[in-house]
Amino acid sequence: VNDAWQKLNSLSEFPVLLISDHRMGGETGLSFCEIFSKKYPGIPIVLMSGFVDTDVAVRGMSSGISEILEK
After folding, report:
1. Which residue of 27, 30, 37, 60 lies most exposed, with the fewest beta carbons within 10 A?
2. Are 41 and 62 in contact (CB under 8 A)?
3. Any residues with CB less than 8 A from the CB of 40 and at least 6 apart, and which?
4. Per-residue pLDDT tens over the stretch 17-55
């Protein structure tokens, strides 16, 4: 997630959409999306995963993720 935050913080424009994979090095994409939604409220978030389960879906939707897509 550190690399994702470094990339996000280096953007010259305000983000209008976040698309993240659930499997990332270190933390999960879900954790990254939860933090992102607090830092950038109202920005749509799409989480992609090859292994969507009920826990991930419920946690994601309750933390501001707009869509969860299964790969």
Report:
1. 27
2. no
3. 14, 15, 18
4. 999 888 877 778 888 888 888 888 899 999 998 877 888
**Integer Cα distance of 60 and 17 in angstroms:** 16
What is the rounded end-to-end Cα distance, in angstroms, of the chain? 20
Integer angstrom CA distances of residue 22 from 5, 12, 13, 62: 15, 25, 24, 16
Which phi and psi angles does 68 have, rounded to 5°? -120, 120
User: What span, in angstroms and rounded, lies between the C-alpha atoms of 17 and 26?
Assistant: 22
- Give 4's contacts (C-beta < 8 A, 6+ positions apart): 20, 24, 32
CA proximity to 26, closest of 6, 54, 53, 50 = 6
